[in-house]
């Protein structure tokens, strides 16, 4: 997850994403949060040009969602979650 700085919006997005992952994934996961203001080289290496950006790197193919991450079904589809989140 690529974010820009530490703000209340960033905190809300991370909290909601964590809750979604805990409720919806049927397997362990790793969520790495990278602040592009502190680590711009990571954004460049991962071809991230906007924040917030969620990048799924495994299993392949690599997928990205850019924006507020309010579309739960889109996130679950990208992550291939086993259960639906309601």
UniProtKB/TrEMBL annotation:
Signal peptide: none annotated. It holds the Pfam family KaiB. Gene3D superfamilies: Glutaredoxin. Transmembrane segments: none annotated. SUPFAM superfamilies: Thioredoxin-like (SSF52833). InterPro entries: KaiB-like, KaiB_domain, Thioredoxin-like_sf. The lineage of its organism: Bacteria, Bacillati, Cyanobacteriota, Cyanophyceae, Nostocales. This is KaiB domain-containing protein. It comes from Nostoc cf. commune SO-36. It comes from the Bacteria. Residues 2-81 form the KaiB domain.
């Amino acid at each position: 997850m690529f974010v820009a700085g530490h703000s209340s919006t960033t905190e809300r997005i991370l909290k909601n994403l964590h809750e979604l992952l805990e409720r919806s994934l049927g397997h362990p996961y790793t969520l790495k949060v990278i602040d592009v203001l502190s680590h711009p080289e990571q954004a460049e290496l991962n071809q991230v040009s906007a924040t917030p950006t969620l990048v799924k790197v495994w299993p392949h193919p690599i997928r990205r969602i850019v924006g507020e991450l309010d579309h739960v079904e889109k996130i679950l589809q990208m992550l291939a979650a086993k259960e639906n989140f309601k």
